[in-house]
User: Fold this.
Amino acid sequence: MNLNKKFEEIVELHPEKVGLICKARLFSYRNLKEKIDSSASAFLQLGIKKGDKVGILMRNSAEIVIAYLGATKIGAIAVPINFLLKPEEITYILNDSEAVVLVTNSHFGDRIVKLRDTLPYLKYFIYTDLLKRRGDYLKDEILSFEELLSIHEGKTDTEYLRTTEVTEDDLASIIYTSGTTGKPKGVMLTHKNFLANVISSQQTIELKENDRILCLLPMFHSFAWTVCVLLPLLTGLTTVVCESIHPFTRVLQTIYKYKVTIFVAVPPVFVALDRLPSFVRFLSPIRLCVSGAAALPVEVLTKFEKKFRIPLLEGYGLTEASPVVSMNPLGKSKPGSIGLPIPGVSVKIIDDDGKDLPLGQEGELCVKGDNVMKGYYHFPEDTAATILPGGWLRTGDVAKIDSDGYIYILDRKKDLIIVKGINVHSCEIENVILRHPAVTETAVIGIPDGTGDE
Assistant:
């Protein structure tokens, strides 16, 4: 099984159901598959083959989904890139991943084209907002995605697909994560990684057949890609895509117009929502909210649920785990906790020597499951240091597990503040400060005082 085969199973079951909505365009599952097939055929015509890397750089759009799944259909590897990065940072990712093509638009692409001489692997730029190619077909570096799809409409290289098997252990994507030091590292995620995480997330979130999930967070982020795109598309639901969070009035209009039922966001968004008038809850079709990608302060969760009377479930994950690790179950959440491990995922706490710790004790959270990455691209030493024998992934997060199995993140290991030899968790201080009504956001850091303390 791979991502595309699973998607095609859903297409067989729900061919005419709307699978994706973006910019007032409604794509049925059948229509989406046809465009993905055209994308795959176009990539093959350009000489892209199994194992090649396809860079994707743009804001949320239907084209990202079509290009991504078009690439994975032929065994190529999608490399989604953070569009907020500087051109020099983007060229680093393109070179490190050895991407042979970049699917983008003129807004982002024109800045990268200027650095063409620094991109030895890149053969083509494909613009999604270009109606026609610039120059002769296959002889120009800048091609039109729309034109490629049109040329290859209805075409499928059955011989290639018959002779080229894409297995669950093949790479589907390389997602670059920015560390606190050094260059970003490419996290290698397989088809199995994503499929396992989707299946586990489906079992955790009580989905309904008419659910519509809002994709507001950027698709280059693993949280958005798995929960807001793959989860609905591989379970027969609908993903509603917003290009940007700004202006937020447009986001609200999208929620109302397309009857979004599940709202997925990060903590700062829920902080901002607190400024909305209370009557909004009577107009909203949303039945469930999910927060991830960063710690959700208890104060924010409590105020949100009290004001809007909608469950807000906090989850936890990291790109290296595809990314979901745990989630608070609906109706059984514990404020301040990141919930229980999702099905198929095991967790444990270890000390600095790598020894397992009992329940209630603080240490580093480790994760094991089919969702754990294959490794870091080009960084075998970092891979060996991060994935322990037995397949346990070191998260770098300080945590504890209570007697009911709920996990509590206390801090990043690197964020611990040492005061008179005692470990102080910055997030504990932050949560106290956030109780003040005049404080919206806060960050606490340790400053060396010259005596060895902070």
The chain has two domains: 24-188, 190-369+392-414. Residues 29-45 form the longest helix (17 residues). The first strand starts at residue 18 and ends at 22.
